[in-house]
Amino acid sequence: KPPPMVVNFPTPPKPTTTPQPIVPPKPYPAQLGEWTFPPVSSLVEPEYSFTSQQEALVREKAQDLQKALHDYGIEAHVVTIDTGPVITMFELQVAPGVKLSQITSLANDIARALYAPSVRVVAPIPGRNTIGIEVPNLNKEKVRLKELMTMGGEGVRRMALPLFLGKDASGRALIGDLTGMPHMLIAGTTGSGKSVCINSIIMSILMTQRPDMVKLILVDPKMVEMSTFRDVPHLMCPIVTEIERAEKILSWATEKMDERYALLAEAGVRNLAAYNRLSEQEKLDRFQPSTEDEKTQIPKHLPYVIIIIDELADMMMMSAKEVEAHLARLAQKSRAVGIHIIVATQRPEAKIVTGLIKSNLPCRIAFRVASRMDSRIVLDQNGAEVLMGQGDMLYLPPGSSKLVRAQGTFLEDSEVREVIGFLREKSKPEFHPELMQLGKAEASGDGPRDELFDQAVDIILETGRGSVSLLQRRLAVGYSRASRLIEEMAGAGIVGEYTGSQARKVLITAEEWQVRKEQEATRIRQTALQDDGVPDMLFDDDID
Predict the structure, then answer these.
(1) DSSP H or E segment with residue 520
(2) Which segments within 415-454 are labelled E, that is strand?
């Protein structure tokens, strides 16, 4: 006798309740002041259209599925039906002795029998001894950000950086904490929903995070996908559209990562959250500044930095080696210091999403891709090539090999504009001066040598490391000036060229540097005396 069939439909919230957004409470430092988050009323209301008639249709389709399998000699019964916004999952209990491969090989035949464009076989369902058949719904519903922000309960409130990604095939909210991911790869062809997913991630941050606690760096080589978010107060710099500048920003981020690690080590804490929990007095006790200037150098708090790159392919075509090295190093180490990377591409080819990059981006989202090969590059398995597009996605959680079928969050242009308009009225972006100076040193050409150049060289020779962050700490200067000093040294042959993953190699010894300084001093004296009309012969070595 077949087991009873259970049909699960999403339950809409009661109309009498007023949804409240989930905004994670955080121990904000008192000196940061108050901040008003965008109202949830700015977002579009969710739609619920499941009816008893649709339930009857779903049950009828379950009977068709059982009959189709029976026609191919497979005895199976539908035990549970989970209906999501776009996909319905039919959970099958198969007879003993039936091989999983028998069902997976019939995917196209099952789709034909159910009049569906495609079906996906989940064999087996993780943690169960049953098989799942995912079938597209005739009537699709849009997943709204407003609804997701009312779901999740206390678990979501405890997340530091919640991202409202969508709903799974059973209609449950798919909400992830970026600090636990901690980096993400997103891939999908044109029209698959990739750009909308990026927008929903940015909107998740804007709706739940203060601009002084989370900073955004948006890289948009196509110059149109992220233009809507210009001038939001969370931006750390203007939206980056030049590939050369984007590579320099990744370089800056690696140096900033090293700088933060040194700061956390001096403070005696293990991560950014622990540092931000320290009181002002605790910071003074741990750093023990000897002067007022040193006291002002101690950061009151460290914001999270989220770097979102909309098209990786453009950057890899320009400078693949450098970009790969930067991304790999950041992804390997930056989690503890609060720097997170989200990389998207519509070309998940092996030369774009290299093995080194992929292995260091553990959380992945695949929308529809062109081929099985592309799906394997992103997810390490097939499946993304049969997705329907328009937000239909496969989510691979970090540390897992089990894919989650989901429908991505959909945003209307009107709700995005309303939220951004609210934020622009509240505050303007405070761009980081170091990021604003990137690239200007190269444009300035040959100019006078920095007055700290000699002192900087002495530090590099003393430590044997050509590091920007080292000069920042020892000379108490910003990133842009320290970077220019390193570039001057490279031009003078004191340190080697940029390698992308390590400090630059020191090419000369302290004795050679001393000889250079003496020769430079002689040249300067000679030039000065010539300008005063003193004959060149006075510089003959035989004349005292």
Answers:
(1) helix 510-531
(2) none
Give the residue extent of every domain in the chain. Answer: 143-433, 434-539
DSSP notation for 50-114: --HHHHHHHHHHHHHHHHHHHHTT--EEEEEEEE-SSEEEEEEEEPTT--HHHHHTTHHHHHHHT
DSSP code at position 259: H
Q: Report the topology of domain 434-539.
A: Arc Repressor Mutant, subunit A (1.10.10)
Query: Cβ(164)–Cβ(173) under 8 Å?
Result: yes
| The two structure tokens encoding residue 34 | 């108050």
Q: Does residue 211 surpass a pLDDT of 60?
A: yes
Q: Are 83 and 137 in contact (CB under 8 A)?
A: yes
Question: Percentage of the chain with pLDDT > 70?
Answer: 87
**Coil, helix or strand at residue 333:** helix
pLDDT tens digits for range 269-282: 999 999 999 998 99
The residues near 145 (Cβ < 8 Å, ≥ 6 apart) are 43, 44, 164, 200, 203, 204, 207, 409, 411, 415
Query: CB burial class (10 A; 0-12, 13-18, 19+) of residue 4?
Result: exposed
**pLDDT of 387-418, one tens digit each?**
988 899 999 999 888 899 999 999 999 999 99
Angstrom distances, CA of residue 303 to CA of 121, 234, 306: 43, 10, 10
Determine the number of helices (DSSP H) and then strands (DSSP E) in the chain.
20, 15
Mean pLDDT computed over every residue of the chain: 84
Enter the pTM of the model: 0.78
For residue 511, give every residue at least 6 positions away whose Cβ sits within 8 Å of its Cβ, in sequence order, or none.
Answer: none
143-433 is classed CATH 3.40.50.300: yes
- What are the tokens at 5? 């069939």
pLDDT at 441 over 50: no
- Residue count (the chain): 544
Same fold, 143-433 and 434-539: no
Please give the Cα distance from 383 to 387 (Å, whole number).
7
Q: Please give the single-letter amino acid code of residue 42.
A: S
